Amino acid sequence: MRIWHAIVLGIIQGVAELLPISSSGHLKIFENLMNLPNVEKLLFFDVMLHFGTLIAVFAAYWKDIVVIFNELLEMVHLRKPPRGKKKDVSTRRMILMLIAATLPLALYLIYKDFIETLGASLLFVGLMLLVNGVILYISDRFSYGKKDVKKMTLLDAILIGVAQAFAPLPGISRSGITITTGMVRGLEREYAVKFSFLLSIPAVLGATILELIDAFKGGLDSGLIVPCLIGIVVSAAVGYAAIRLLKFITQRNAFGKFAYYCWGAGLVALILALISN
Length: 277
Fold this sequence. Notes:
This protein is mainly alpha-helical. It has helices at 3-18, 23-33, 39-60, 62-75, 89-102, 106-118, 122-139, 154-165, 174-184, 189-218, 225-251, 258-276. The longest helix has 30 residues, at 189-218.
């Protein structure tokens, strides 16, 4: 893999992961166009790019993350609350909802190997991008919810978590499917976006750790170190800008417009699959 490959793929990851258009699907399309055939090495590189966009999420929501982390420490009695401080009910409720929404990720461990096999098929990627477009098209029909952290229910959190368990399918956008599920359940638009990105932290961090363990067990290719570092930096920088853009778009009730793009990208992937065969 060359440096320019890492830069281009880092840009694609930063844009496609934080906007609801599926980074996994776009990476597979462009990796195919660049003739990068080593699936095992690309899987590790793709996970590192996801780690880059995780850094972007930390940068965009660091104030919320610090508050949540401190409150969590107080909940498990690892940190004493400042004298006179009242319990932050809203933050504690957010923590419980995030935990509930994270639990369904255990489903991913069951079909992890199967998903990695599907990722090699451009035909499947194309079909999933078309499905992702349908999911986003639905979102605009449910974009007037009023639920915030105080009104969100445990069932809302679990259903969003189940939706996230399907996000590893190449062509399905994690942010797209979780934000849409939140809107369908009546979450307020901006809160649905925030919850989706905060929920991505344990998911992406867990996937990164698992992939690093597998990489070190199998012997890490030293030739991938520099491209991975460059890809992480680029995807983090571009991802941060993409989060700000998504907030702007969501406020203007234009989230579902990405559906048309996904349908176009899906058709491109299907055409490439037919040509390559």
